[in-house]
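batch_manifest entry 22 of 60
target: Helix-turn-helix transcriptional regulator
source organism: Streptomyces indiaensis
requested by: lab member K.T.
priority: normal
notes from requester: please return tokens only, no post-processing; we will run our own comparison against the previous entry in this batch. if the run fails, retry once and flag.
--- input ---
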Amino acid sequence: MAGHGADEHPHGADRLCDAGDRVYSRAVRRGRVPRRDAEPVPCLLELALLHPDPDDMDWLVPTSPQEVMTRLLRAMHDEVSASQRRVGSAVAAVEWYAGLGSPVRPAESAASAAEGPAIRVLDGLARIQAAMDEATQACTAEVLTVQPGGIRREAELSEGLHRAMSLRGRGVRMRDLYTHVARHGQGLLTYLELMGDAVEARTLDEVIDRLILFDRTVAFIPANTDRTMALELRHPALIEYLVTVFERLWRLAIPLTAPLPETGIEGISHREQSIAALLAEGHQDAVIAERLGISVRTCRAHIARLSETLGAASRTQLGVRIAQAGLDGPPPSAATPSLSVPDQGSRTAR
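--- output ---
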């Protein structure tokens, strides 16, 4: 925030101070408030929660809670996207420096041998599987995974089932993130039924590339596009960073047992709203399909239905219709607290 209000009100729109909460609540209930009522809480104007009434500049009218919620969700989405980019940059930089081959003193070499290298390149599926099996055997408490793409093939699920069952037998808890499309795969539902309460699954419109974290001490990520190479990461700073990225995605994700939220627009599904938001960002069909875990053909079918529903005769007109309908932001998440009109004496969205 800028101006004198930043020192007195160091917060965002998701956590108003008590005074700001009272004034904004009053404005929402009554439709507007006198400008003098907002003078003690300049944060409301700085955060664009209140703005001048064009018919009478001595009064302020509130920004709707729904618009504020959309703004908050978009900021969170941008923050997670920036985190994903920084992960890639951090791994590339550390791998570069590790490859310089700086000499290691004997004492340091012994310590490294005991803990394992901070970054190890696993070339070939056999080495990847062996390293994963070793990490599985050493795991005692928790596994976090991100599984991108669409519907999981039963062969993929069966491949890791022996490790998952071994973890379950030792009381290890697992949390898995998938894309929303994975909800439609019978193989995943069967896998989760077999695992019982040992696994908790949530879904998002799109997730980062594949990630597997064991006990917050060792992580595995792909090192090439066809996943025949992987990186085994043990550096504490990298692990902490990846855990933070996972937890933020987890907070935004929707439990697999919960339905996807309605878009609030008749004839437009949650997936079509996700496609609309990516179209508004200027992405091509193939990129959108990859990010959402669907085929290009399915993506284009959704775009055609979206155009028909919004009455758009061209891609250019579709972009305008998407903006007019308010579909150019991220879809609402059932796991994200929404900004609602509070009762008297209550706090705004927390």
